[in-house]
Queue: 3 jobs
Job 1
Amino acid sequence: MCSTQSSDKAGGAKVSIIIPVHNAEKYIEGTVESVLAQSYRDFELLLIEDNSSDGTLKKLKCIESKDERIRVIVNHGSHGAAHARNLGIGAAAGRYIAYLDADDMWMKDKLSEQVRFMTDNEAVFSFTAYEFGNSEAKGTGKIVHVPARLDYRHALPRTVIFTSTVMFDMTRITKDEIMMPSVKSEDTASWWKILKSGVMGYGLDKNLTIYRTGTNSLSSDKLEAVRRIWFLYRSVEKLSLPESIWYFIGWAWRATLRRL
């Protein structure tokens, strides 16, 4: 049911939250509620509708009426999550940009703790720990911890940065620099591009996000992940074959441990 509530604007630097939404009718309300429940109140929520074939757009229009901080942007044609996020980046007005996927959930202090962390560390780019959740977004107790700092070379063998935990300080990086490339695993390719430019990634090792696991078979997901990471090493980063093998071994080892 869609009811209207007034926004509670507090002081502080505005956060622009970008959520690409494609056929997420089943999950998007819960995801948005986790944003509206944030203890940090100074934000705008940009919902990028990416040519859904279910009732997503109708639901988004209902959600948009709940709060003046919510804005729906319709992406005509299905161009994928990278293009949708890039539309959100272009429209964002906040000092900070944060990403959230349409089926994930945030803890209520996620924004307040991460903004404070960014300020304390003078960080351009930060990410947090997260927890695997089931299909109902209930935590399973499997938490992925993150390093205090991460540079390009140490990022290559570990895909530890989860999109729904990322935040940028837009006073210290340009929108062009964070635009995502149109490749598979565009999020990982984007983090590597940013880190390769000399930006340091800062990890807040506190679980502030629930990653809702999908329904695809685990073996299929693993095979696709292998293909994508190898493509990134060889075709995007253009690493040599020995370098690619070295980093791939490290990635496979850490990916296995993360799932245990």
Note: DSSP finds nine helices and ten strands in the chain.
Job 2
Amino acid sequence: MYTLHLKKNKYLVLLLSLIFFTPTIIWALSDDVEKPVNIEANYVVFDNNKGIADYEGNVIITQGSLQILADSVHIQAPGHEISMVIAFGSPVKLRQEMDDGEIIKGQGKKMTYDVENKIMILTEDAKLEQGRDIIINNYIKYLPDTGKLHAGGQKNSGRVKATFHPTNKADKNKKDPANR
């Protein structure tokens, strides 16, 4: 196992923080950004001169509660600071615990995270889940700084499919005798 301690490893945790398609923003575990990034793979090639690393075969990336599973991952880190993470899989799978204890899951055949511009894109059979809420499209783009999520709108991205479940507030009000 290889452990990376990079200044910008906090942006890796944002990979899964992208699933903010409900009205309230839920943040990943606050202390995840302080944890080391651990990467396991069957094979890795580092090129320090170019600042790149290619991980191949059953790649597992963890940082705190964040877990990314992929077939291969390409990391660009000029000057030893991560600028781009590109993961491929069938599919790439993402999972992370939020501060409220809820689990966020995402997947797509390709995941690109532009760390410098803080843009995360899932493509090809992309799917994001937060609790029982789901959004599906061939193109899902997330901007962590603003909390904005864009799905569809690209050539061949198809129709966006979303399922949102109401909160239990309405059910609680019906059952509460004080609200009658």
Note: The two ends are 60 Å apart (CA to CA).
Job 3
Amino acid sequence: MPAVAISRESGAGALTIATLVAKELDVKCSGDPSRSWTVLDQNLVTKILEDHSLSKRIGEFMPEDRRFPLSESFEFLLGLHPRSGMLREFAKHTIRKLAMTGNVILVGRGAAIITAQLPYVLRVRLVAPFDFRVRNFARSHGITEENAVRIVRANDAARRRYVRAYLNVDVTEPSHYDLVINTGSNGFERVARIICAAVEDLVWRERGQNLAAASD
């Protein structure tokens, strides 16, 4: 069962594109007709908490950023949440399990890095010019572009810190991904079509390799 893991710059349109991809793959690449493609973005934290029987309140301590170590240590000692290392392993376990189950699009949380060794997973990085991302973020969140500039920069920095701290890689390095796509120059619908075509190609390529191995 195929899966898609998306890394993104803030404001590049990842959630919109992921939703378009899920709708198209439901028709073209369902794998199991009884299971629709699911997009997991913010709700990925909920899945992690459910998987490991953790309180919903712990979700407050799982931002896509690296917490200040001293503050985190005090919170752990006060019993507010498990150590970040434990939460990180919980997240990895859930992301791998979801990717192996298939029919899922995982957005953020280092999913494209965590699934690096798994077959049937297409890893995508979505980028766009800064001005385009600011305008898109402001429009989609109903805020001014002035406020969007600050938030987009903060989000980008936080995600870089998160992946560097917990996975020890540079999230912007193109070699981590099967596709790096500029959403500003291609448009969201065209990007969705590109990803869907790549998923279909991935499935047929992997199946062909498996059949060839079985016939040896």
Note: The chain is about 55% helix and 10% strand.
